[in-house]
Amino acid sequence: MRRRIMTRRVLSLAAAAGIVLAALPASAQQAVDVRVTLSNFGFAPEQVRVPARQKVTLTLVNSAKGGHNFAARDFFRAARVDPADAAKIDNGTVEVPGHGSVTIALTIDQPGRYTLKCSHFLHATFGMTGAIVVE
Ligand SMILES: [Cu+2]
To answer: What stretch or stretches form a coiled coil here (predicted)?
Structure first.
């Protein structure tokens, strides 16, 4: 008898939790994955699309043997970066070692177009430039 009452209470708690989760906006539930590949000598995609006002998990993958970076000073200045990932960004630039990857969680409220390049010597000249479009 007592057990039956407990079971009922647990079930009603679970139902209440389900209602709360359903009421949350989609943006609060999960991050949007944005993946960018760095190679010799370019970014793919060249125009990186990032949704505004949503949690974003930005994953930078370097498919090359040598190092590249993701230099986007204005973008990172405008973004709110997860404190756990802040140390991965130095002066608006994220270094990605050869065959390595770096993941950064952030939110950006300001729509716009932000310039992107690799600031390694001559890499931008060789074509390693792009843009981040926040919309
Ligand atoms: Cu580069």
So the answer is: none
